[in-house]
Design a protein that fits this description.
By secondary structure, the protein is of the alpha/beta class. 32% of the residues lie in helices and 18% in strands. It has helices spanning 2-13, 33-49, 89-96; strands spanning 28-30, 63-69, 80-81, 86-87, 103-109. Strands 1-2-5 form a three-stranded parallel sheet. Strands 3-4 form a two-stranded antiparallel sheet.
Length: 115
């Protein structure tokens, strides 16, 4: 609930900055570190094959999505793998998209622990 409240407060405060321009859309991609990196790289490579010379920074999405366990918050500051690839929010922001403004969509889940 605390994480949701913080995200809601941020979204409310910066709502105007989070809206795409008229006739435009924002792209959110996910979910694991490797897939996000592969998507951006493949879009850049495709553009080169088409003869375009836009820099790779033109292919950065508006937001990236990742999963975390709501109890431990694994995947926020340390890499973790829930079976679908490495989830690592800091890695998305600091390694894949340094010095850029990118939103993060947090998908929380609760793991059932065996007794």
């Amino acid at each position: 609930i605390i994480v949701y409240s913080i995200l809601y407060a941020l979204a409310t405060r910066y709502r105007m900055n989070c809206l795409p321009g008229k006739g435009k859309t924002f792209l959110t991609i996910g979910q694991d570190l490797f897939s996000i990196d592969e998507y951006v790289t493949s879009q850049f490579n495709y553009s080169l094959h088409e003869g375009r010379t836009k820099p790779m920074s033109e292919f950065i999405p508006s937001a990236a999505m990742f999963y975390t366990d709501l109890e431990s918050l694994d995947g926020l500051t340390t890499p973790t793998d829930y079976g679908s690839g490495i989830e690592y929010a800091d890695g998305i922001v600091n390694s894949l998209f340094p010095d850029t403004n990118i939103g993060l969509q947090v998908c929380g889940m609760c793991r059932v622990r065996e007794k």
